[in-house]
Amino acid sequence: MTFASISLEHKQQVLDELRLIKQQFAAKNWFPGTSGNLSMRVGDFDPEKFYFAITASGKDKSLSTPEDFLFVDNSGQAVETTSLKPSAETLIHCEIYRLTGCAAVFHVHTVFNNVISEWFGDQGAVPAQGIELIKAFNIWEENAPVSIPVLPNFAHIPSIAERVPDVLDPSIPGILLRGHGIYAWGKNAFEAKKHLEAFEFIFEYLYHSILLKNSVPQVNAIGHR
Ligand SMILES: CSC[C@@H](O)[C@@H](O)C(=O)COP(=O)(O)O
Ligand SMILES: [Zn+2]
């Protein structure tokens, strides 16, 4: 499959969907200070050859302009002539697509995901249990415990991307970057958005419940791996 062989209608539909989600997340104030990036895959998936649309780097993501997105290949290189630069974090998207075969990857910075990533960063995972929204991850087991992986953050993005395979858990559609933000993904935009909203709910819940109890639970205390 070449990029040119993917229909214009499909590419336009993906751009329209991304634009709508960008507006919805902006309304939640999920892109403070130009942070965050969104992508969606186009065409068929081959772990060694795929294409996706991604937000251009450094833009005010609360605005809608003709210069918000561009298409890249699985190495993160633009596939059309453009003056736009793909997100500085494109390599992380590439790695998540390659490992999961998913179709949408969304990244946002929020106060809740940043605080939680700091509290649990040393443990390498955020434990959660007994929260109904865990079912949004398609986990239906009674009182299922989950562990959301936390990676250290680096200014050098390839150093983050190369660590993604070490922590990515196929049953958990997200990874937190410490002091940075969350990446969530899904088999389509609807599912990636659902997952991202569930993660953010869990982080906000944990933030409040930990402050009330005045102690950070340990991963092992509730049976996480
Ligand atoms: C301006 S702070 C956020 C950036 O450093 C980065 O983490 C981010 O999420 C957005 O980068 P971008 O290159 O616009 O996709
Ligand atoms: Zn970021």
Automatic annotation (TrEMBL):
An example Gene Ontology biological process: L-methionine salvage from methylthioadenosine
Transmembrane segments: none
Pfam family of the protein (one): Aldolase_II
Residue ranges constituting the Class II aldolase/adducin N-terminal domain according to the UniProt record: 16-207
Catalytic reactions of this protein: 5-(methylsulfanyl)-D-ribulose 1-phosphate = 5-methylsulfanyl-2,3-dioxopentyl phosphate + H2O
Superkingdom, taxonomy of origin: Bacteria
Secretion signal span: none
Cofactor section: Zn(2+)
Cofactor note: Binds 1 zinc ion per subunit.
UniProt keyword Metal-binding, yes or no: yes
GO CC annotations, alphabetized: cytoplasm
Residues the entry annotates as binding Zn(2+): H107, H109
EC code(s) of this entry: 4.2.1.109
PANTHER family referenced in this protein's UniProt entry, alphabetically: METHYLTHIORIBULOSE-1-PHOSPHATE DEHYDRATASE
Family note: Belongs to the aldolase class II family. MtnB subfamily.
Function (record text): Catalyzes the dehydration of methylthioribulose-1-phosphate (MTRu-1-P) into 2,3-diketo-5-methylthiopentyl-1-phosphate (DK-MTP-1-P).
Protein name (record): Methylthioribulose-1-phosphate dehydratase
Species classification: Bacteria, Bacillati, Bacillota, Bacilli, Bacillales
Chain's gene name: mtnB
